[in-house]
Amino acid sequence: MQNLPIFELKNVSHRFEKIQSLTDINLKIKAGEQVALVGSSGAGKSTLLSLLNGTIIPSQGEVWILGRNFRTLRPKLRRQIQQQIGTIYQQFNLVDNLRVIHNINAGHLGRWSFFKAALSLIYPLEIQTATQALQQVGIPEKLFERTDHLSGGQQQRVAIARVLVQNPTAILADEPISSLDPQRSFEIIDLLHQLSQHNKKTLITSLHAIEFARSHYQRIIGLKSGKIFFDLPADTLTDSLIDKLYTDPI
Ligand SMILES: Nc1ncnc2c1ncn2[C@@H]1O[C@H](COP(=O)(O)OP(=O)(O)OP(=O)(O)O)[C@@H](O)[C@H]1O
């Protein structure tokens, strides 16, 4: 079990009606790995992340998550597996007019009953857990602030705190810094790196900023026109290969 990959894709292709977004992907990602996904717009990065968190099922091939062939699972087991995968998005996916604590507590939703979730909207529950998560992302004083009163960088920290409360095995981040300035971008990438290392969580991040992929990830996967163009340790990736990823036709 120890050596089983957290994620495995076997001959995976995906098609959105007329658009072939991924073609024949074979990939294994082990526990604790920090992987950056890079490639031009439309290369298939978000599609790949959506396959890894079970949001979409591939048109062809098999996606194995935590040792299970996801397609074959019953809905209840699918939800249990999905609870183990936390995802952070470019647009944060927070409810703007709620206080921060409610957005963080959304990380419990897969585990809480409907009643508990509804009650927590009136009397916030698990304040200590939420405070700890907010402390880990560096803004503990914002717990009762309205979410839309925070800056973009702070909102992304809240989204990360929500994932920490979910306590997943793996964290997926889909272009988490696209709407942030360079300094905030560095801070969020650095935070994700520190948290995944400290909490021993697998981290997979899609990124346009190649410099952060190189500085903060062990492994870099380049996608080009829906195919894996390279899959290399960060310290062996050359500038010329990066140029080819973005310029040459496949
Ligand atoms: N829901 C969808 N319906 C139809 N086509 C889609 C859908 N999602 C993605 N695609 C198409 O699949 C291809 C891959 O898209 P994807 O979003 O995975 O790329 P990406 O590498 O994440 O791009 P970006 O960096 O711009 O986010 C694109 O051609 C895109 O237009």
List its traits.
single chain, about 250 residues, alpha/beta, 6-stranded mixed β-sheet, 4-stranded antiparallel β-sheet, 10 strands, globular, binds adenosine-5'-triphosphate
Structure description:
- It is built from nine helices and ten strands.
- With 250 residues, it is of the alpha/beta class.
- The strands form two sheets. Strands 6-7-8-3-9-10 form a six-stranded mixed beta sheet, with helices on both faces. Strands 2-1-4-5 form a four-stranded antiparallel beta sheet.
- Helix 5 (127-136) packs across helix 6 (152-166) and helix 6 runs parallel beside helix 7 (182-198).
- The longest helix has 17 residues, at 182-198.
- It is globular and about 55 Å long.
- The mean pLDDT is 90.
- Bound molecules: adenosine-5'-triphosphate.
- Adenosine-5'-triphosphate is lined by residues 16, 19, 21, 39, 41-47.
A few lines on this structure:
With 250 residues, this protein is an alpha/beta fold. Helix content is 36%, strand content 25%.
Structural class: alpha/beta
Tally of strands: 10
Order of helices and strands: EEEHEEHEHHHHEHEHEEH
Question: Which hetero compounds are present in the coordinates?
Answer: adenosine-5'-triphosphate
* Largest sheet data: 6 strands, mixed
Shape label: globular
Strand order of the largest sheet: 6-7-8-3-9-10
What's the SSE blueprint?
Elements: E1 7-16, E2 19-29, E3 34-38, H1 45-52, E4 60-65, E5 68-69, H2 75-83, E6 85-89, H3 100-105, H4 114-122, H5 127-136, H6 152-166, E7 170-174, H7 182-198, E8 202-206, H8 210-216, E9 219-224, E10 227-233, H9 239-246
Parallel strand pairs: 3-8, 3-9, 6-7, 7-8
Antiparallel strand pairs: 1-2, 1-4, 4-5, 9-10
Helix pairs in contact: 5-6, 6-7
The protein binds adenosine-5'-triphosphate.
Adenosine-5'-triphosphate binds next to strand 2 and helix 1.
